[in-house]
Amino acid sequence: MTRIIAGELGGRRISVPTKGTRPTTDRVREAVFSRLDHAGDLHGARVLDLFAGSGALAFEALSRGASAATLVEAAAPAVRVIQANIADLRLKGRATSVKEKALPFLGRTEGTWDLALLDPPYDIARDDLAAVLKALAPRLSPEATVVLEWSTRAGEAPWPSGIEAVASKAYGETTVHYGERVVDLDGPADGSVDA
Hints:
By secondary structure, the chain is of the alpha/beta class.
């Protein structure tokens, strides 16, 4: 079990998958959401939680004022936990669970988001993460914020064209990278690169 730190659902406990995920620590979640709160990135935001695990990041965002969240997770046991948490927290209608891998989801969706939260497995290949981030860029609203939690040993985030690095902060084995959607008025608006 873990708990939602603050907001309308503050103190509520949520279930976590018994294996196969790495829940974000309370310390890191508090730091991330304090920054997002301070920047005004949460109020009314449409949130995308990729590699959602238990859904803790999306639920924290909803608790602190986000309007809606889409939680994308490929592992069936984790999806069942997410769905149970949505029901327990009475978030049906504000939180949507999708059982799918991140890259295929981004390839087929037509949604756009104001805040994207990514907590991929630490052993994800750099090229695979880069492909997800490249597919994510055109699905973001202008000036959307991207938060990537990744292994400190992995180095800098592989931000694509269309997402600009803003900051990063290490918490032991975890580094949180922040990016912002930027639109190049001279280039393609879909985040692609001219050949």
